[in-house]
Each structure stands twice: as C-alpha cells, then as structure tokens.
Amino acid sequence: MKKLLAALVGLVFVVGFAYGMDPSFATGDRKLDSTLEQLNIAASADPDGFVRRLSSMHNFPEQELRQARDTYGLGGADLFMATGLAREIHRPVHSVAEEFKQNQGKGWGVIAQDLGIKPGSTEFHQLKRDARGSLDYMESMAKSKQKHEQRTKKAAQGKGHGKSQS
C-alpha cells in the first residue's frame, strides 16, 4: 500500500513538472494553479507595477510587500498568495510569507488550510477571483505599454527619423 501511495505521489509531481507547473503553487485547484503560473510570468515583467497592484488591491503598504518579497525570496505568485491570505486572516504579509518559507514544499493549498482557509470556502473563491483579476490587469497594462511604444515608434518614424535621404 505504501509503495502504491508513493508511486501516485511521484506521478503527480512528474505530471506537474511535465506541464511546467511550479510545485509551490499546488493549491489543490488546477485553475488557480494555472492562473498563478501565468501571474508569476506577468509579475516578473513588471515587478514594481505588480507590487503597486497588490498594495492597492489588498490595502497593504508597498514597502511591506517589497520587504516580504525580498526577505523571503518570493516570486510574483507567492507574493500574491501571501498577500491575499494575509488580508483574509488579518495578519501581516511577512508572517504568512514566513509560514510559507518554513513549510516550503507543502504548497499554498496546505498553507491556506493551516491558516484556516478551506477549499471551496468564500475566502478561497475570493483568492481565485483576485488572482484572475490581477492577471487580467497585468496583461492589460502590458498591452497598453506595448501599444504606447508602437505609437511612439511610428511617430518618430513619421517625423523623418529612419527615412533615407535621397
């Protein structure tokens, strides 16, 4: 029985790695895990914008978020989860980040349960909505920045920059 259980656990990790999933995102919810993986990528493209977004969304000072990120080496998704859980349980972000780092390998789903956020609860569903909203926001900001850069480039070319002189 133990061998079967060990084989199943190993298979879950192999499948997760095959799909490129970071095992720390393991929340027990595939959709949230996928959103967190995408959020991690978006946050790495604009770390300061991401911190501003989290600060505004969860009502924590930006400095507190940066300090937790830097002290505990959190990526974007981990910072999102630490901030979201901290808001739900009314604790400082650094205390949730510390809990996560002390129990590294368990994943955010286990940490959330240890902190009293049960799967399927109102709080858990709020975390999922917030993750999706943050991802949508970060993606729209990236598109706006890209459009602005394209307009600036076209405007510069239209003023004789880049045109050959005959």
Please provide a written account of the structure:
The chain has 166 residues and is mostly helical. It is 75% helix and 0% strand. It has helices at 2-18, 30-45, 47-58, 62-72, 76-89, 93-102, 108-114, 122-158. Helix 5 (76-89) packs across helix 6. Residues 4-22 have low confidence and may be disordered.
Keywords:
166 residues, mainly alpha, 8 helices, elongated
Separation, N- and C-terminal Cα atoms: 82 Å
Alpha-carbon Rg, integer: 20 Å
Total number of strands: 0
Name the helicity range: over 70%
Number of helices: 8
- Provide the residue-averaged pLDDT: 83
Biggest sheet: strands, sense, closure?
A: none
Strand residue content:
under 5%
Q: Which regions are unreliable across 5 or more consecutive residues at pLDDT < 50?
A: 4-22
> What structural category do the secondary elements indicate?
mainly alpha
Characterize the overall form.
elongated
**SSE ordering:** HHHHHHHH
